[in-house]
Input
Amino acid sequence: MLKKLAFLIVLASLLLAACGTAAPAATQAPAATDAPAAAATDAPAKVYTYADMTLCYPQLGAESDWRTANTASFKETAEQLGVNLVFSDAQQKQENQISAMRTCIQQGVDVIALPPVVEDGWDAVLQEAQDAEIPVIIVDRSVSADKSMYVSHIGSDMVLEGRKAGEEMNKLLPNGGNVLEISGTTGSGAATGRAQGFRETLNANITILDSQTGNFNPTEAKPVAEAFLKKYAGEIDGFFIHNDGMAEAVVEALKAAGVKPGEIKIVSVDGTRGGFQMMIDGWVQADVECNPLLGPQVMEMALKLMNGEKIDAEVLTNETVYYPDNAAELLPTRKY
Ligand code: GYE
Output
């Protein structure tokens, strides 16, 4: 039995050796240049999972409820998926975001997701990330840098949000009137886009009396609102306010000035719980949705990048407009 086995082994090895030496050069040549054949002999490529991912999120600040919800979305999603999230808060300062990105580049993170506080001034650090072969996904607001400097942008269409706000103002002031604008952070994609879309859509019989920034921050918006109410007393028919937090500050100023809900029409943006409450209370007549819950989508995109899969260069969030009529019904369902 053993002898028979030994004989078979010898025979098999002789046959193999014969095959090896007898193989004509012609059949070997294609194997060397043929990629799939070569790959078949390589170890299979590693498929990364969320547990392998270190994602850098240099958050721009904590200026609004929108931002708080955005931060929570990234932290909660990372926790659920087991992603190692390198989070920082730049307190609305671009230089802080840039240095946080540089730290992430030095650490050798897998992917950077950047919510840029302003549009300009990212070229150098985006180049550094590219040189380190760390892909960058731009989140929420846009950048003015060339599209080749980052892999994708995911967020809202800010111009569209401004157009929606303009349409709502047209409906609220069918006979025209004077409006004031309190805009977001100067130079941010969100503020620039919303201001542009609003102006594109506004009827000719509506005049923008004045526009000042409140930096997306209620504390900064409050004195702007107070100054407006003094300067333009008796002339104001409406406010376009770039986010709900600043709208809350305007409502406080209106209350203090003795204005009743609905006397001055307000169109705001975000759709936060605070925004819904102002609609229920009669202060805000339309709230243009802007969705901050981007954590799950961004992490899915980042994982695809790690696995060498293609992702879309532009991913726009689908958004609606909310109105007072069903605000009370919807408020309990709001996640931010
Ligand atoms: O509307 C505002 C936040 O960039 C879309 O930033 C975001 C804006 C949002 O502070 O509340």
